[in-house]
Amino acid sequence: MTDPITDMFNRIKNAQAVFQESIELPYSDLKMQIAETLKESGFILDCKKKGAKAAKTIKIDLKYEKQRPVLSGFKRISKPGQRIYVSRSEVKPVKNGFGLAIISTSKGLINDKKARKEKVGGELMVEVW
29-41 and 4-17 helices cross at what angle (nearest 10)? Predict the structure, then answer.
């Protein structure tokens, strides 16, 4: 697998298409931080680390409102073959503030609102709406 983050979001979208309550993904620290950022922003209900050593997984509880998934789309910006970086002045709202951009900064993974507040830039990982 060349892009585990895109795989993570594709698994979430596929699970939401059939209204599953939760999914399990192979564990990585980056995917866990992305899941925690989605949880803080209200796109998923909960995320937990399960298992030990090589058998670690992430369990994500999906969120629905009025029989529709809360996370309706995503766009991977920075890819393994082409990294995209933004300065603090280039961090813009996604979908007029209804979406979320996840940015890898020197302060860890944060959303676009926090990045503008703390005046930091970094690698623009993914946009979610």
Answer: 50
Q: Are 56 and 50 contacting, i.e. CB atoms less than 8 angstroms apart?
A: yes
Over residues 73-104, the pLDDT tens digits come to 999 999 999 999 999 999 999 999 999 999 99
Domain edges within the chain: 4-69, 74-128
8 A C-beta contact, residue 63 and residue 42: yes
Predicted structure pTM score: 0.93
Q: What is the per-residue pLDDT for 53?
A: 86
- CA distances to 14, 80, 126 from 75, rounded to whole Å, are 15, 14, 6
Domain at 74-128: CATH code: 3.30.1490.10
Per DSSP, helices labelled H in the chain are 4-17, 29-41, 112-118
User: What CATH class does 4-69 carry?
Assistant: alpha beta
Tally of CA atoms within 13 A in the half-sphere of 32 that contains its CB:
10
